[in-house]
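Journal club prep — side note

Before the paper discussion, L.F. wants everyone to see what a predicted structure for a comparable chain looks like in token form. Sequence:
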Amino acid sequence: MNSPFSAASFTKTYDNGATSDLWLANAQLILPDQVLKGSVTIEQGVITEISEGDHVPEGATDCQGDFVLPGLVELHTDNVERHIEPRPEVDWPHLPALIAHDAELASTGITTVFDAMRVGSIHSGKKGRYVDYARKLADELLAARAEGLFKISHFLHLRAEICSETLMDELAAFSADDRVGIVSLMDHTPGQRQFRDLTALRTYVAKKRGMNEAEFAEHVENLLALQKKFGAAHEAGAVKEARRLGAVLASHDDTTAEQVVTSSANGVGFAEFPTTFEAAKACREQGIAVMMGAPNLIRGGSHSGNVAAEELAKADLLDIVSSDYVPSALLLSAFYLAELWSDLPRAVATVTCNPATAAGLRDRGRLDIGQRGDVLRVRKTSKAPVLCGAWSQGKQVA
């Protein structure tokens, strides 16, 4: 069987911001295979030394027994979209939105993010239309990064919407220089995958788009027609475009074993939010890493009625956790899994090493010599972990 991370065979390092030196001592270091009482030294943005013991040398920060772990790596978050459109049909200025998004993620311990942007728009129909925005937003994000305006490391995640009209044109506007790390195959056609239950879709669009019953029925009919017309060509085209861009390919909302077999044939490296136990099990058999949402895990179930993340975790079918739509849930989920598995290093890997590896990033996600100096200081309380400090390449960002 292939490794769950075999599709991610490249390394991308783009950050050129300022780096700093840092010395954290008297900490519980969460290493890949153990928790070690000791200290970690970061010089010029890179981890240069890890030593054992509770001694606090002069010039070091006394962590007073708090945990020190790698910065969190987020592969799929809708948070940037929430900032640019804080309410339905409200377009917020993009640069302030991006800076606020970046600061929010830093404040939750996320030091690397793949910002999800939809590509594939719908211009037909009276309601449920989606406009093109990804290319313009990506340009603004990349420009802000080049100017050093961000606290943390940003990559692009293009959510390729199969059920759309303009997917191929929008993907063609991106190049290998655009920092696209992930392309995910999204098919939100009503009646399958995430929206097998049309009640869940009706609730979602009624709240977001204000549709009545007649408008909802027309919307569903339009989406079904689009999928019939473009579905197969868009899926094949998006797979080809992911290769052109040098991006890792991800599937989304796989529901059946047959869909997972197709994902594997397409070269998918990890599966975002499989909706059934059957699909997650098939992912394991196909060597595809399974990612689930932290809100699902913390809330005890899916808000859409899909398989519970905890059920998959108990069955050893969970590799990666994503904050999805609640950035602060990522850190919380790691400590939740640590209790469930009685294994803190394994739990922390689901939000650090495993997502980094799945996305092809070999320079972060572990406390190890030569890794990026992206680290967190976390205090465990009786109710929740508390972030006491976050550093990106040794520079404090929270």
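L.F.'s comment for the group: The chain has one domain: 71-361. Keep this in mind when we get to the figures.
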